[in-house]
Design a protein that fits this description.
Strand order of the largest sheet: 12-13-20-19-15-16
Shape: globular
Radius of gyration: 25 Å
CATH topology of the largest domain: Immunoglobulin-like
Number of strands: 33
CATH superfamily of the largest domain: Carboxypeptidase-like, regulatory domain
CATH architecture of the largest domain: Sandwich
Helix content: under 10%
């Protein structure tokens, strides 16, 4: 009787109306679960880069419902570049391909989730040939210099993101090579468009080169879009070159031996889909993570790293899913060693790499509340050379 009662409940939940009630008593819960699994679909394909199969590419599938994205599942390509993402509920999905060595992209060479072609999954069917051809990263559309922030480039579009801690703003100097599709450049403006309007900054030519530059002063630095508008002899041309994003710092990266900040370190952000922040220090549920309110001690040093640097755990956080701000991943640390994102609720960790240092992985941290003290140290891999003193 117990099995029959469970089977009836499951039949309504999973929509197994084709199974006669008279026969339900002969189905175990496991058998019904297997039927439900078999009703889901899957996505398969191959990823190539520079014309060759590419192994080790992360393939992430997001479900699209009413214009919003939620994590579906993920896979990693094998040495033949093939992958399979299974157990997907019927519906519409978008697929994202990420590699450390090539420009990431959404299915059918889209640069964002909003423009990605939807992949429809059907019950019990395999949606095949969802392939990708990864390309080398695009050259930056401009360069930026900022003394208190970091600059990253979207490898797929070349647009730059200038990330600056809210409380440590500084001048931002933008340089771009300027040409005209028709005619010759007459003048150029750097435009910063924010919620408060648009500010224009005249760009000056650097010597006899094609490069022009302009500086946004510290007091005028705000989050907004950067556009270069060129007046050419045959008309006006505008190019979006990126954005400025102000953020609350998440932590500082320092040299483990000297305590000095490490500038220019690469910080990658990872998320653990399905994990939840702990509700209390005694919360022992699996797939949960500590927060600033539940962690042991007053900082994160008593918690172990999320993973070994060589072993994967979690998913590289896609920049344009609306879950991280600034929408740039990875980041580079500022001259003060700072890095940071504002992130959605969930469990996160970072991996930090810098030339001459061993890779460091942070503990898994839960948000909310905000995490502003995920400070990490990098151990130098090159020891200083000490010459012996010779008495004379």
């Amino acid at each position: 009787m117990t099995i029959r009662r469970i089977a009836i409940i499951v039949s309504f939940v999973l929509g197994l109306s084709a199974v006669p009630f008279a026969a339900l008593s002969y189905y175990s819960f496991a058998e019904l679960s297997l039927q439900a699994y078999n009703q889901n679909g899957s996505i398969t394909g191959q990823v190539q880069a520079s014309g060759q199969p590419q192994g080790g590419v992360q393939v992430v599938v997001y479900r699209r419902i009413a214009g919003m994205l939620s994590f579906g599942s993920s896979s990693i390509t094998d040495q033949q570049g093939t992958y399979q993402v299974t157990d997907l509920a019927p519906g519409g999905y978008v697929v994202w391909f990420w590699s450390e060595d090539y420009a990431s992209e959404w299915y059918e060479n889209a640069s964002s989730a909003q423009t990605a072609r939807q992949v429809n999954v059907t019950s019990g069917q395999v949606t095949s040939e969802i392939d990708a051809q990864l390309e080398l990263p695009q050259e930056p559309l401009a360069t930026a210099e900022v003394s208190t922030g970091g600059v990253t480039t979207n490898p797929g579009t070349g647009e730059i993101t200038v990330s600056i801690p809210t409380g440590s703003r500084s001048d931002v100097r933008i340089t771009r090579k300027i040409t005209c599709a028709s005619g010759n450049p007459v003048s150029a403006l750097l435009r910063l468009t924010t919620n408060n309007g648009t500010e224009n900054y005249s760009m000056s030519q650097i010597g006899q080169t094609t490069a022009y530059e302009a500086t946004i002063p510290q007091a005028a630095v705000q989050s907004g879009n950067l556009i270069v508008q060129v007046t050419c002899s045959n008309g006006v041309e505008s190019t979006s070159i990126g954005q400025i994003v102000l953020y609350d710092p998440s932590g500082i990266v320092t040299n483990a031996r000297t305590g000095q900040p490490v500038e220019g370190a690469q910080v990658q952000l990872f998320e653990l889909p399905g994990w939840e922040p702990k509700t209390s220090a005694s919360d022992n549920r699996e797939e949960t993570c500590h927060t600033t309110e539940t962690r042991p001690g007053t900082d994160w040093t008593e918690l172990d790293p999320a993973r070994d640097p060589e072993n994967a755990l979690g998913l590289f956080a896609a920049p344009d899913t609306g879950r991280i701000d600034p929408a740039a991943n990875p980041q580079t640390t500022t001259p003060q060693g700072r890095y940071g994102w504002d992130v959605a609720e969930g469990c996160w960790y970072v991996v930090v790499q810098a030339e001459g240092y061993a890779t460091t992985v942070s503990p898994i941290v839960g948000v909310p509340p905000a995490v502003e003290d995920l400070d990490l140290t990098l151990e130098p891999t090159i020891s200083p050379l000490y010459l012996p003193l010779i008495a004379r």
